[in-house]
């Protein structure tokens, strides 16, 4: 009888207990959400570097020393904390000495991985590091392990970071840079299980030890090439191969791309999709969390002191190329779906900030899930740009652990959590970011925040349709706008999280 009453009340009034709840857990936790979790990646691929960032000093497109002014402004506003370069697969074909000295003397090479185009090396080490200084970002350099040598890598490190007198520092000065640059982050190889030399894990581990023992510098963070997605055999293999010397690597990388179909042959369109591909994309994105947990538990076995951090240095959506664009240029559009993908990933990274020290979305301009797209002199900020701008508040903030419960978003026979969330505090301001994957309904979220807080305001990124995107020369359809919130009553705040949206709620003590 009792059960019948409960069932009856559920049917007429909904569940008796709130299904969607978020509680800020008071904690003595001092886990910092490293600003580098909001990092980016730039490769000599398609129009990421040339056209997207660098147009040359003689271009009609307004520029500073050849770098696009509009793009510089957009990145400054975004507070890009770290930028990875020169690849990707390109990095393991890149010989840095080709990209220094007078531009007219620099050799041209063929970019074998990306469209077979001619790379004239006019954007090299000086240009990249100069650009990082212009936008106020930390550089993260990827060393050529696949086709390079230890000597070449060591000379690059010396050229860039040394203040001693040596042949390499003399060369740097001759090329116009007196002072060394401060480069902390060094990736030793990229995808060495694939495009970076097709190595076996134990072989790569030996190679890594060799490189890492010669690449030396103050406070360097050296990154060992980690697995793609859920490849635990690679993680196990390389960590075992370090033979106890886990202190040779401060970071282990993870690459995880979201493909709607999960099939590299036919990945799905970036703009034309229905609920099936919307659901599949968000479901596949959420799988990154189980990969993170799997790799962290292997890392725990080899590095129980947890000194080595996880660095998700390539992530984002990967769709079929836009019709009419070149093969190997990886050009795609960016819709409300990408905003959700970004929000979900960043919430997951925030919640694992004790172990994830950096993440780099692929890639910063014109390639894959970019924050900026350019066409000639035009530029658009994508929905993903607006998510990064909204989530800026978490950069170097203290993570707030949350108790969180969400209903599911059910599509056909499958379900995923409808909401995701993360929270942090900086300068007395508490920021909570929430995603709602359900494209059909707003979800009421009951937040237990505490009595002594007041609301500062809210922000939202959404669109009228899930396929909305921002087009060149047109008004933005997907942007960051204010989000109206109710009042805190007895330490509780009810938030109506709109369908297919990403929201930010800010509170103050
Ligand atoms: O981001 C595009 C490519 O994806 C990178 O070059 C490579 O590392 C990965 O396979």
Question: Which keywords apply here?
Answer:
single chain, globular, 11 helices, 8-stranded parallel barrel, disordered N terminus, 509 residues, TIM Barrel, alpha/beta, binds alpha-L-arabinofuranose
Structure description:
The relative contact order is 0.14. About 25% of the residues lie in helices and about 25% in strands. It is globular, with a radius of gyration of 23 Å. The protein has a domain of about 325 residues: Alpha-Beta Barrel (TIM Barrel). With about 500 residues, the chain is α/β, with parallel strands linked by helices. The protein binds alpha-L-arabinofuranose.
The SS-based structural class is alpha/beta
Instruction: Give the radius of gyration.
Output: 23 Å
Overall pLDDT score: 95
The CATH homologous superfamily of the domain at 32-67 and 80-375 corresponds to Glycosidases
Counted beta strands: 27
Please report the number of helical segments. 11
CATH fold name of the domain at 32-67 and 80-375: TIM Barrel
Oligomer status = single chain
Cofactors and ligands: alpha-L-arabinofuranose
Secondary structure: helix percent: 25-40%
- Please give the order of strands in the largest beta sheet: 3-6-9-10-11-12-13-14
CATH architecture of the domain at 32-67 and 80-375: Alpha-Beta Barrel
Query: Which consecutive residue ranges, at least 5 long each, have pLDDT under 50?
Result: 1-16
What is the 3D form?
Answer: globular
Give a quick account of the main beta sheet: strands, pairing sense, barrel closure: 8 strands, parallel, barrel
Per CATH, the class of the domain at 32-67 and 80-375 reads Alpha Beta
Distance between the termini: 47 Å
Our estimate of the beta-strand percent is 25-35%
